[in-house]
Amino acid sequence: VPWIDWDEWLNVAENVFSDDKERARVAVERIRTWQSRGKVPHSAEATAALVEINCSSDQHSVYELRLMYSMSIIRFVNGIVDSVQQRKFASPISDLAEHAAVPRILVDVRSLFPAPLRTHLASDSTCCLA
């Protein structure tokens, strides 16, 4: 595994959800380091992407944020539904997402890309992190 030990994993997990943006940013950097060392669980990658956007939201235009949130949410959904795809032929993503208990609003971001307003995407990203 790319993390040093279970204590490092737990420390990053605690800090990535911190209200302190600096602590969250450092946790995201640690996850990026793990990614450079080897395979990281999809949940950690998706969380890092969404938290990174939240931490840097004041540095981007509304359009850039819409694109970043949309792509991160789409990758979040794809990562989850790919893991539950069991058939020889692909099942509809909406069916797979429902089976995996992914809220429909997150699946719908795929068909609206990048149309939703930033405020909707920000709340959708919070749903991913819950």
TrEMBL record:
InterPro entries listed in its UniProt record: Las1
PANTHER family: RIBOSOMAL BIOGENESIS PROTEIN LAS1L (PTHR15002:SF0)
GO molecular function terms listed in the Swiss-Prot or TrEMBL record: endonuclease activity
Residue ranges that the Swiss-Prot or TrEMBL entry lists as coiled coil: none
Protein name per its UniProtKB record: Uncharacterized protein
Pfam family, one: Las1
Any one Gene Ontology BP term: maturation of 5.8S rRNA
Cellular component annotations (GO), alphabetically ordered: Las1 complex; preribosome, large subunit precursor
